[in-house]
Each structure stands twice: as C-alpha cells, then as structure tokens.
Amino acid sequence: MSTRTLRAGTVVAVFAVCAAVVSPAADAAPFDLAGWATQGGGTTGGGSAAPVTVTSSSALTSAIRSANPAVIRVSGSIAISGMQKVTSNKTIVGVGSGAAITGGGLTVSGASNVIIRNVNFRNWSDDAINVERSTRVWIDHNSFSNGYDGAVDVKRASDYVTVSWNKFSSHDKTMLLGHSDDNGGEDRGKLRVTYHHNWFAGTNQRHPRVRFGNPVHVYNNYYASVGSYGVASTMEAGVLVEGNYFENTKDPYHRGEGSSPAANLVARNNHFVNSGSGDAGGSVKGIPYSYTLDSASSVKSSVTGGAGTGRI
Questions:
Q1: First and final CA of the chain: distance in angstroms?
Q2: Where does the UniProt annotation place the signal sequence (predicted)?
Q3: How many helices (H) and strands (E) does the chain have?
Q4: Of 192, 206, 209, 255, which is the active-site residue?
Q5: How many CB atoms lie within 10 A of CB 171?
Q6: Using one digit for the tens of pLDDT, what is the confidence trace for 207-230?
Q7: Which of 181, 196, 252, 240 is nearest to 214 (CA)?
Q8: pLDDT tens, 148-169?
Q9: Is 206 designated active site?
Q10: Which is nearest to 43 in space by CA: 121, 215, 158, 143?
C-alpha cells in the first residue's frame, strides 16, 4: 500500500490506496466475487451442497429458512408476500434469465455467508433485499424494478457486503446503507460495502445513500439519466467514488442529504457525459483488498453488456 494525497474540490483528502489493477477492456473481466464480501473469511454461500430447485413460494421459503447449508435454484416466477427470512450459508440463484421473485422480498437478518444471484425482483411491497445484522453477503447479477421501498438496503451493523453487476430500473429509492443517524453505536466500524458494475437505468435516488460506513467503495458503475442524485455521503461516512460513468445525471454525488449532515467523499477517475461535476471533500479510509479497476470511459459498454439477469 502507498499513501497518496488527492484534492477533492478545495479539501485535501488523504487515504491509503490499495493495489488496484486498471483494465482497459472491462467486457473481458470475470464475474467473480470482489470487494468487501471477500473479507472476514470470504463468502461462499451454500458451497458444495447439492442444488435443490424450487418452483413455488412454499418450497422457496422452506429452503431459505433451513438450518443447513443450501444451494437453491429459483425456477420460473415465484410470488411471495412480505419479507421472507434467509438464514446463513445459502446460495439463491435464478435459473436462466426468467427466474423472478415478485410481490415480496428477502431479508438476510442475523445471518452470515449468503449469496443471491440472477433473480428478477419486481413489485415488492417492502424491500426487495434487506440485509441487517448480517455479514459476508454477495448480491450479484440481479434485476430490480417497480418496487415500493428499497431495492437493496443494508443496515444495523451489517458488514462485508458486495453488491455487483445488478440492474436497477423503474424505481425510486434504490440502495440505502445505514437506516438512521441515531444508530451510530451499532453501526460505527461496520457497514463496509462495495458497489461495483451496477447499472442504474433512470432510477431516482440512493445509489447509494450512506451513513457511518467507512470505507464504502463505489466503483465502475453506470449511472444513466439518474433523476435526483447518484451517491450521497452522510453522517460520519467515508465513500470512495471511483471510475464510474455518469451520463445525463445532473447530481452525480454529494455530501449530506435531507436532515443528515455531510460526511466524507473522495472522487477520482470518473467519466462524465452531460452530467454535473459532483461535490466531494474530506478523507476516506484505505481500501484493504485488491481489485481490477476498469477505465471509466469503458464502463457504459461493459456494464450494459454484463449487468442484470441472464449473464451468468
């Protein structure tokens, strides 16, 4: 690691820089786990458990609540109600491009080592995926649209989470990290999340909206015609916004949001097309893991070609 000093606006930002590898051609990059979910022992989900295929809500809820490690294959469209709990050591993966969970959502609560991949989430009545008091969670290659509240919310001292290669569309409140300014006693030192290679297609806000997490890593995402704002760093957070592609996005990132005070945000190597310049400042802790950073100008092509369901 080396220590570098960057200027964010008029504020000097000092942080440790890990060994990032810059790739000029992101479309050849593997869809392997990267980011915070590689830490703390890594995230393997159900591991080598024999896969079970589910086609009904009763079979799905029974499988995800099991006390044993499981690899659960979601086939077809399954309608559920409310928030259904996912226990530890689970892999939930959709079959093909049409696997869907509709009407309700999944809550990873008090669990560890969970993977959710390749599922279309639509018309959820609360959150699509809620992660709370959980660690080592990987949310990858899903598609989210037309829900009520958060698409992917992470809160209540959750830690070591990666959200990657997902597509978000036709939705307002996309991703909340840290639910309350008053929850610092539980959240400080936690809420470390990586968001990379996600596609925000005309969504409105919270991409993500961050409290307390530091460092939170937002890299190589494609922001397309985002309505209200991209990234917001609030309430003691530290967010590194790196190598993203912002297009037709008036407010790509800023500090403070609503009644939450401004926090730290460092921005570097981003690409802007018909977009604002953003508001950055303060310092962010060093990223502890190695990662491949695609050139920002290539991100639109790689993300639109690789994000969402049916790609793995």
A1: 33
A2: 1-28
A3: 3, 31
A4: 206
A5: 25
A6: 999 999 999 999 999 999 999 999
A7: 240
A8: 999 999 999 999 999 999 999 9
A9: yes
A10: 158
